[in-house]
Amino acid sequence: MKGVVLAGGLGSRLHPLTKITNKHLLPVYNEPMVYFPIRTLAEAGIREILLVTGGQNAGDFLRLLGNGESFGLRQLNYAYQVGEGGIADALRLAEPFADGDPICVVLGDNLVEKSIARHVEQFRQRGEGAHILLKEVSDPSRFGVPVFEEGRIVRVEEKPEKPASPYAVIGVYFYDSSVFERISRLRPSGRGELEITELNNSYLAEGKLTHSVLDGWWTDAGTFESLLLATNLVAESVTRKEQEKNESSRRLEAVPIHS
Ligand code: G1P
């Protein structure tokens, strides 16, 4: 399976922070935002990754990420999106890279606490259809929201005023090779974008969309509130890991040495 990170867009909800740089280059506590989705893929064992970006700061990604050495990658691939056509439009640029393989797509402003390796492995074995991940949230109307009937998803609604469930469809998606043909059949939504939600609905209409609920925390970081939340969650994780490290080295030091 190959990985795709979508890191384009205008980031208009973060103006003026994004007037002179790309949203995904902004800091989340101690690292640039784009590190997180790349690491999510790399740590799940995905070695071939494409970063799709656009705008005036595209070159900064090259300087920051290089060939992905710091993520244990041999090479990082790049694609440039001209203009703004939405998430599914950006994904279209991944077609030559995917070259018929299944893909795991991560939105560049999505952060997950735990490994997604289990989901990667399950989809790798299945190899067809699409798979989405859900997380219960307090404000579902900001996201894609699944509508359930008798325990099955019957529809995904994009930013519904009255959410039909407390779940958000998070920005980590698994697709088979039919994804690009499906994108070519999408029409722009009311906000003039090719919506990833409609792409998911096209799989759903054929009974080919499955889902699981994500373990651990998840957040996007595309608004001031969610960027602050992401920063705090990452800070807590970093502090906890440091404490655990100190704790285990203290335990090692405390072990008496017998000669
Ligand atoms: C996008 C998707 C939405 C999804 C969200 C996850 O929203 O359109 O379905 O739930 O990412 O972060 P956007 O970031 O464009 O508001």
Helix content: 25-40%
Contiguous helical run count: 8
Strand order of the largest sheet: 5-4-1-6-11-8-12
Distance between the first and last residues' Cα = 51 Å
Low-confidence stretches: none
Number of domains: 1
Q: If you had to describe this structure to a student in words, what would you say it looks like?
A:
With 259 residues, the protein is of the alpha/beta class. The chain has one domain (2-132, 170-254): Alpha-Beta Complex (Spore Coat Polysaccharide Biosynthesis Protein SpsA, Chain A). Helix content is 32%, strand content 25%. The chain has 8 helices and 13 strands. It has helices at 35-42, 58-65, 87-92, 95-98, 117-126, 179-184, 196-204, 224-254; strands at residues 2-6, 27-28, 31-32, 49-54, 76-81, 103-107, 110-112, 130-136, 144-149, 152-158, 167-175, 209-213, 218-220. The strands form 4 sheets. A 7-stranded mixed beta sheet has the order 5-4-1-6-11-8-12. It starts with a strand and ends in a 5-residue tail after the last helix. 1-O-phosphono-alpha-D-glucopyranose is lined by residues 87, 107, 110, 143-144, 158, 168-171, 196-197, 220, 222.
Describe the protein's topology:
Layout: E1 2-6, E2 27-28, E3 31-32, H1 35-42, E4 49-54, H2 58-65, E5 76-81, H3 87-92, H4 95-98, E6 103-107, E7 110-112, H5 117-126, E8 130-136, E9 144-149, E10 152-158, E11 167-175, H6 179-184, H7 196-204, E12 209-213, E13 218-220, H8 224-254
Parallel strand pairs: 1-4, 1-6, 4-5, 8-12
Antiparallel strand pairs: 2-3, 6-11, 7-13, 8-11, 9-10
Bound molecules: 1-O-phosphono-alpha-D-glucopyranose.
